Amino acid sequence: MCGIIGVLGNHEVAPLLVESLKRLEYRGYDSAGIATVNGGKLDRRRAVGKLVHLSDLLVHHPLAGHAGIGHTRWATHGAATENNAHPHASGPVTVVHNGIIENFRALREKLAPHGLLPSTDTDTETVAMLCAHYMAGGMDPRAAVQATVADLDGAFALLFLFSGEDDLMIAARKGSPLAIGHGDGEMFVGSDAIALAPMTDQITYLEEGDIAFVTRAGAEIIDACGAPARRAKQRIETQSTVIDKAGHKHFMTKEIHEQPVVMAEALARYAPNGMPVFPDALDFTRFDRVVMVACGTGFYSCLTAKYWFEQIARIPCEVDVASEFRYREPPIAPRTLAIFVSQSGETADTLAALRYATGRADMVLSLVNVGTSSIARESDLALAILAGIEVSVASTKAYTNQLTVLALLALHAARAKGSLDNGALRAHIEDLRAVPDLMRQTLALDSQIAAMAGTLAPAPSVLFLGRGVMFATALEAALKMKELSYIHAEAYASGELKHGPIALIDPSLPVVVIAPHDRLFDKTVSNMQEVMARHGRVHLITDAAGAKSARAGTAGVLELPAAGDLAAPILYALPAQLLAYHTAMAKGTDIDQPRNLAKSVTVE
Ligand code: AGP
Description:
By secondary structure, the protein is an alpha/beta fold. The chain is built from 21 helices and 25 strands. The strands form 4 sheets. An 8-stranded antiparallel β-sheet has the order 3-2-4-1-10-9-11-15. Strands 5-6-7-8-12-13-14 form a 7-stranded antiparallel β-sheet. The chain has a 5-stranded parallel β-sheet with strand order 17-16-18-19-20, sandwiched between helices. 2-deoxy-2-amino glucitol-6-phosphate binds at residues 295-298, 342-344, 347, 350, 393-395, 483, 600-601.
């Protein structure tokens, strides 16, 4: 996801712009650039690759000026080249953009007869050209931006700067977040509070359709109808925006090791006295069914929760990935609770799916890690998963905290539906409360997990197997392996192996079986035997009972501490995360910002 920063300062802004862009690196990018106005003159510096290349360029070709904008680009239209890097410019206009302009080709055709032809492959350049075109026709920057925005289809956050205007930035938001930072005689604009944290903790979030005219004196905001709008100024806890590795080699390992603590925080919030506690509006006597929608790792937490809602609360639960749900346009029956799970709260597909469900479902509930996010703001009710800032692109602590909150929600539903007596309920919650300590014990197995990873790293592909609720864990394990080590990995319900995938089995294909000794374990052992009978190499992740029963013939066994049924998918996520991490380390890939990935995908 692209990162945006803008500064109307009282000092040279180039260093500040680059420092803020560094705080946005976690979003994933492949090029970066800044532009400043100095003595009324606009100028730009852009570079492909990591920010260090832009910094090097600025050493040899510095940019002066007390007003500037900056951008980290995650390529959508056009390869990662200097020419395609933002800021883009046309005439007196320069602009940075996060999102997709869906009608940019039609707009190019509108501009061509005026001799305005693109010089890049990007949709963003068209925005600059259109704004310059309106200014050439006599509009001032404010009117030109309003006319430009009115012509755009798609999702975007835009920040404009103009030659001859060293006390004006114009920000526009439609679908991608933008925040305004208030300084002392200075003003800022950024993609989020993290980018703005070095400059201010006084933040105003723009709403959908807002345009903000920013000068050092402040920000004047108009809404989607062009009417003046007042948006709340809030103080952001600066330590919540602190980004450091706390002595870890990577943000990912830091966040993996934070899981015991943040899970305990979620338990304390939603089960403070050993019973689930949720807002009164979440009264499950109102609902006959649950629909859950998310993307990526969030989807796998929903898939896990499906088993819990159906097996424990006896509530039918449908799950789907957001990119399919929104276009499948499913009928949503009365008395349906629609749940949207998103770490960033800004994923475009999930937000679009939420908007489809709004007005159709009886309640739209979201589970997010960013309380000020678009998904949170557009929900009837948003539950914080309390995982703390998650910087590494690969989601870890957010996943296990999503599972924790969803497990408690399923128990809350079961109590409302009378499908679980208080004794069983308390037993499940005790199982969950034991998990942070079981996580610490599991993290102590790191060297064994690294050894298992060493056998996977040379493989061209890895197959993960799981049964029942652990099938969702196997899917998440495969995603982690793909996105971190770039090794192809897939997951199958182990009972499904014999219906085709078993043709893949041979010694070159490691098979990782994720199976606590639960009521389906013996079925899984049969599937393991099917693999080993064909000279397949099975790595078993299980507990002591499972190891005792099924170690024979395997290529290796990782023995986790015993965990309750509801707790197992949460605990078993840790070896899946560490297996992917160590395999990636063996492969030498970029751990915190894997190639091609963004931390939150705010485009379709
Ligand atoms: C997870 O490791 C990936 N980074 C990705 O699948 C992610 O879960 C997905 O893009 C959804 O993001 P969200 O939770 O912020 O909506």
